[in-house]
Q: What sequence folds into this?
């Protein structure tokens, strides 16, 4: 089946389970959409909603036993998770539409979460301007693959913009 306009095949994705840990120490598995490319390596097809450190387009090495992923090659995309509570549906729709208008895409949505993916060439100022326009109450957003666990920039985008 051919890829769609945004480069994502409309056929069903394979999924791998990655372990996610909350700030309180609770763990759960997130199924992340991938395509196997051999030797335990996978192309991430959709940015995850909870697992940190990867985005759509990245190639990862998957450790099935520990349910972890290690970056093999960055795909040049920035993952953003927008957590919201009580936002009007039109605000969410506007966020999604504007994300697409500036070059991003919507990779997932739950009742209180929207997962966005942007080519790094869109630029952090444009992404932050979009997210800064959201109402202050009931919204938290974060980059999924820009900072390490200590909050330091990963800087994988240096020279890419």
A:
């Amino acid at each position: 089946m051919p890829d769609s306009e945004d480069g994502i095949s409309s056929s069903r994705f394979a999924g791998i389970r990655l372990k996610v840990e909350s700030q309180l120490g609770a763990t759960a598995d997130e199924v992340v959409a991938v395509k196997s490319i051999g030797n335990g390596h996978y192309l991430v097809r959709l940015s995850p909603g909870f697992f940190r450190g990867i985005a759509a387009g990245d190639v990862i090495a998957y450790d099935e036993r520990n349910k972890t992923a290690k970056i093999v090659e960055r795909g040049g995309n920035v993952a953003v998770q927008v957590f919201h509570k009580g936002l009007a549906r039109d605000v969410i729709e506007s966020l999604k539409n504007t994300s697409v208008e500036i070059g991003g895409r919507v990779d997932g949505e739950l009742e209180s979460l929207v997962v966005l993916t942007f080519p790094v060439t869109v630029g952090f100022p444009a992404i932050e301007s979009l997210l800064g326009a959201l109402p202050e109450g009931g919204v938290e957003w974060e980059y999924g693959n820009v900072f390490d666990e200590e909050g330091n920039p990963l800087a994988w985008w240096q020279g890419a913009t």
Residues 14-73 form one domain. Residues 1-7 have pLDDT under 50 and may be disordered.
